[in-house]
Amino acid sequence: MTLYALPGACSLASHIALEWVVAAEPAIEDQVRVVMMPRDTFPTPQFRAKVAVPTVPALETSDGAIITESLAVLLHITDRFPKAELGPRQGHYRDELHRLLSFMASTAHPSFQMLWRPERFSDDPVAHASIKRQAVTRLTRVFSHLDSALGDGEWLLGSKPSVADFYLFVLGRWGQRLDDATHNYPNCWRVTEALSRSAIVHRVLAREGITFCGPVAGLG
């Protein structure tokens, strides 16, 4: 199994998930590989030839299938390695896992793109300021919703971290650079900071060549 990732991108959540799996099942370490791709040459012709829609995360399974999109990759890892206990497998909490991942992938992540990559939403430079203003409003709603979803809970889905928390960590890490920063949302910040102290997350950040705080702006 090979994960293709970019430093500090949303693929960071999948990278953390795989490292969590290896920590739970050390015997499979040789079966898991992470390929970090430089941002300045992405996507390479070789990657385009392998992945029809050249985006990260991209997961190549042991049988050669390619899975893209964070929601699909994170759910695949969860189900493929049940011993790691990265998410519920049935019932209400499974539905909630789907909902949270969908919300983060389809609402939260694009809001950051609107703020830092407005040219992806309009080729008219005049519109970029308006897109950024909308992004700020959306991100306030995003973090307010996730803060409420957490409440007093230790993690989003019970007493153990799940792939939903790993995705929240990515958003929380990016959110430190907002004027209305992640630490203004105490529940989101609690989870983000807790994962930042994990030895597993430390290893992943080091492998990606990034820090918890990250750059001043951008998705890296």
From TrEMBL:
<protein>
    <submittedName>
        <fullName>Glutathione S-transferase GST-4.5</fullName>
        <ecNumber>2.5.1.18</ecNumber>
    </submittedName>
</protein>
<dbReference type="Pfam" id="PF13409">
    <property type="entry name" value="GST_N_2"/>
</dbReference>
<dbReference type="InterPro" id="IPR036282">
    <property type="entry name" value="Glutathione-S-Trfase_C_sf"/>
</dbReference>
<dbReference type="InterPro" id="IPR040079">
    <property type="entry name" value="Glutathione_S-Trfase"/>
</dbReference>
<dbReference type="GO" id="GO:0004364">
    <property type="term" value="F:glutathione transferase activity"/>
</dbReference>
<dbReference type="InterPro" id="IPR004045">
    <property type="entry name" value="Glutathione_S-Trfase_N"/>
</dbReference>
<dbReference type="InterPro" id="IPR036249">
    <property type="entry name" value="Thioredoxin-like_sf"/>
</dbReference>
<feature type="domain" description="GST C-terminal">
    <location>
        <begin position="90"/>
        <end position="219"/>
    </location>
</feature>
<dbReference type="Pfam" id="PF13410">
    <property type="entry name" value="GST_C_2"/>
</dbReference>
<dbReference type="InterPro" id="IPR010987">
    <property type="entry name" value="Glutathione-S-Trfase_C-like"/>
</dbReference>
<keyword id="KW-0808">Transferase</keyword>
